[in-house]
Every structure is written in C-alpha cells, then in structure tokens.
User: Fold this.
Amino acid sequence: MPLRLPDRLPAIDLLKQENIFDIRPLRIAILNLMPLKITTETDLIRLLSNTPLQLEISFMKLQSHTPKNTPIEHMMMFYRDFAEMRHEKYDGMIVTGAPVEQLEFEEVSYWNEITDIFEWAKTHVTSTLYICWAAQAGLYYHYGVPKYPLPMKMFGIFPQKPLDPRLPIFRGFDDEFMMPHSRHTEIHREDILANPELTLIAESEDSGVSIVMARGGREFFITGHLEYAPNTLDNEYKRDKDIRKDVAPPLHYYKNDNPNNPPMVTWRSHANLFYTNWVNYYVYQETPYNIDDIT
Assistant:
C-alpha cells in the first residue's frame, strides 16, 4: 500500500534497507496465440488493471508462426520473439487459447516452439495461467493428460463450482460462478484425479473440468475464457452462423436463450476477482524480490 511520509523521517532509510519501499513492478509475460490479438490484449489488460500493484506487461510471439489477422506493424511494435525473452525471468505469465484444438498437439505447426516455452516457464516464471487450448496443451505436455473430441461444441456460459473455497484463488467467490466456454474438445475428470501432481479445483456439471492447479499454484489450467468481453460469444456466433448452418446459439448467454436479445453478462465480477487473486496471492506474494532468484 502506498505511504506518504514526512521528508527525512529516519524510518525511511532503515526500511529501504529491507526493500520496503523499493517495490518493483511485477513483470507479466503474455503469449498471445489468439487470432484477434488486439481484442485479446484488451480483454486481459482490462482484468489485470484492477490490481493496485504496478504491472509491467510484455507480449511474446512465436518465431514459427506468423499471425494473419493482426497488422505486422502492430506485431513489430508491441511483441517480441520468445528467443529475445528466453533469458529473462517473469513474475507471472499468461498463455492464451488458439484456434487449433481440433488438431493433434504434435500436428500444430508451432508445437516444438511452444513446448520449449512451456519448459522454460517452469524455471523462469513464478506462476503461469494456461487458457483454453493452452490449458489442454499444457496439461498434455507437462502431465500427459489427453484431450477428447466433443460430439458438439461446448459453447455458452456455464456454472462452475469451486471445489476448495479456502484456496486464495477463490477468495471472495460465491458458491458458484459463471465461465464462458467455446471449444470442441475436453479434458476428462478421471485423468486429472489419477495424477497426484494435479488438483482439480473447479468443475461444472455441464462443461466438465474447469480449473486445474499444479505445483502449489505455479500453474493454473483454465478450460474456459473468464477474460472474454460481453460481446465475444455474440460475435463468434454471428460469424459462424453465416458460414455454416449447424451452428447453435451459445447457451445461457442471451436473455431467454434468444439470440435476438442482447447478451447477459454473468461472469465479469468473478473474472475480475480471479485475476486479482492470482496477481496478489500467487504472483506478488510468492515471487522473490530479486526476480533472478526465480527457479
């Protein structure tokens, strides 16, 4: 918490020696794999901005993949290759979803590079959030957990239940919270429970495995999209229904499940809480003062 103290107060010099006043910005890396990168940047920064802590955001890109939906000028100005960042350490990291979930992991063109990043994050990042496809990819790479195709797309807003409300990541949560999902594959509960290194911390009767934690909170795997803006699923539905005839509206999203009505936003308060809790309890309170001490 910021303090305003009288000039030349003796306590200031003494406490500076204990690093009390030399609070450095927390360094957060974001590997943005989503096609509409500017939209995803906005979604994540909106949530991260709620913490009173000072954050320094760095955007990472892959050398082995060239985005098609974001201007090259934007990528050159705001993103750096992993090769440029791999010798640096970060307090936190976010790896987004990607539109490749119907491919086998090894068939993804940048699989070798992204698994190199996953391995690097284990020793160079205090806590990492893996979102949607990245969650499935991270669970597969780190812990051998497979993904399974769904008969129909998991598409909509679904209630989730925290399984251990005492965890700091759920501080301030209700007994149930909502989460957007938009995916064609899933993780099975029994595969998570069979691995003693993994803890299932939230799930849904409708959408299944929701959040998995590993390494005491150094890794979180989130199968949905708490970061989504109010209109994201609406835009996706309207885009896809103009291309295919078999696209169903997202469930529990429009008022009365009628796509002619506007979306109902039911997940934003818990999304803000989740990201604020992650930054506070799993990044700020766990990361060493000297960032080079992260191991």
Q: What stands out?
A: Residues 268-284 form the longest helix (17 residues). The two ends are 27 Å apart (CA to CA). The mean pLDDT is 92.
